Amino acid sequence: xxxxxxxxxxxxxxxxxxxxxxxxxxxxxxxxxxxxxxxxxxxxxxxxxxxxxxxxxxxxxxxxxxxxxxxxxxxxxxxxxxxxxxxxxxxxxxxxxxxxxxxxxxxxxxxxxxxxxxxxxxxxxxxxxxxxxxxxxxxxxxxxxxxxxxxxxxxxxxxxxxxxxxxxxxxxxxxxxxxxxxxxxxxxxxxxxxxxxxxxxxxxxxxxxxxxxxxxxxxxxxxxxxxxxxxxxxxxxxxxxxxxxxxxxxxxxxxxxxxxxxxxxxxxxxxxxxxxxxxxxxxxxxxxxxxxxxxxxxxxxxxxxxxxxxxxxxxxxxxxxxxxxxxxxxxxxxxxxxxxxxxxxxxxxxxxxxxxxxxxxxxxxxxxxxxxxxxxxxxxxxxxxxxxxxxxxxxxxxxxxxxxxxxxxxxxxxxxxxxxxxxxxx
Length: 426
Hints:
Blueprint: H1 8-40, H2 44-72, H3 74-91, H4 98-112, H5 115-126, H6 129-140, H7 142-160, H8 163-184, H9 196-202, H10 219-222, H11 226-236, H12 239-257, H13 266-291, H14 296-311, H15 323-351, H16 357-388, H17 392-417
């Protein structure tokens, strides 16, 4: 670690907690699924529709937040996003129908879509390239911490108070974060706590001057660039896999291994703790290789290929006979996803100038969300079909096969569109 003053790592802490809250709020519904199934008389396809409502709005939100954050800046853009999704999360408690719940999920998705464009742009503003993947891995691990906290917090609230209170309490946490964001965040060149030495280090490998007057690039120009499509396909083929595990893993453990979701789940905690290690370790790996003298593109691609290979063993989850075997394979796959995620987000800032980063992240994340809309359709169809035939596990087995090859396909598409991840000049 550089001896340069390190206020920038405090900014990562803010991003970490924002991402933790973001995933806590979206994870609640997966843990309440058995309760809400009885409350609203759902089928698996009904649940898929509720998930799709969130995902469709999440995808649409990227059209708004990706561009708007490049225009109004990270401080105000992040504030709008967190206020929006926190209000939507609390309003889940007021619904009395599946339609009402789906509507609130849409509002939540629209607001939550601002988190990653804002966070990735913040990292690009505060870190040199050799530290960006590690910084991204740290804040992205908040997704896993949110998923670890949820299996402890939500069942306790559900048992003590009820499902409506679970939405109110978890949704209210975002307003606490906003206080610290307002007090401690500013761009590095304007921040009174950032020394000249740290500012020089932040811009040490910048290939462009820091210029707050630059206008963000037109989105239509971005769609004509091969590097944009590399990021798009990398997200489109892998994001749906993460979302499947996020929303269906609790019910999979419940149905396959009779896990009681009304009690804190050690198994889920172990899985999501592993993903935290994957996120931070995956971000560290490519930075380590860069510091060893590897080029940026070689370090990122080598690291991402190793993570894609690490997902392949989830194929064997279909043969597991006890829950801890499944926990091991799924934990490895989800840790590899988060390692992949820490690096794919960083490729956007590797290839594009700062003025376009939020827009590119928005476009790619929108593509990932589109995949997240289509994949639950398939998941719901498979699970309902085989549930009616008396063996829902066959449906899960088919899904695990798809998961095992998705990352290798994504890596290949990225390599075809950006073999050397050349810098884009706009």
